[in-house]
Amino acid sequence: MNNFDAYCEQLDKMEKMVKDALPEGERAYVCYSAYKTSKTTGNPLNNLKQVAISGKVIMHQNRDDFGFGGGSKYTSEVLENPTWLDISVAANKMIPTTGDYHHSFLEAVYPANKRIDGVKVYSFSMGS
User: Fold this and answer.
1) What whole-number distance in Å separates Cα of residue 52 and Cα of residue 112?
2) How many Å from the N-terminal Cα to the C-terminal Cα in the chain?
3) Residue 91's closest CA among 48, 128, 116, 61?
4) What is the tens place of the pLDDT at every residue in 22-43?
5) For residue 27, what is the DSSP state?
6) What's the CA gap between 39 and 16, in Å, rounded?
7) Closest C-alpha among 120, 125, 18 to residue 76
8) Which of 24, 83, 95, 118 is most buried, by the most CB atoms less than 10 A from its CB?
9) Are the beta carbons of 2 and 72 closer than 8 angstroms?
10) Are 78 and 116 in contact (CB under 8 A)?
């Protein structure tokens, strides 16, 4: 197997993990890309089971101009110590809510510097 095949195989494994974590019947929109790569091989490192944010958090995303079809803001339920897989599932719900199907690549999360009912709020960093 060459390096390109190994790279693609690792991406396919992560994509399958995300799809398998979605509620039954939910269409997959998110493309997971919040991973680091191996210094040795250059291949993606599967971090989906790692905690992305420590503690309780609410994920929030405003609707923007790419929100085709009358989308609205997205606010998740309270998540506790969400893994990157949990964040991916939330991002997948966020995409049809905001209507922004153009930005489907989950690249990172960032603190929104606000709280809702005392719970810290983070936003998604989505790329295209």
Assistant:
1) 15
2) 29
3) 61
4) 999 999 999 999 999 999 999 9
5) P
6) 24
7) 120
8) 95
9) no
10) no
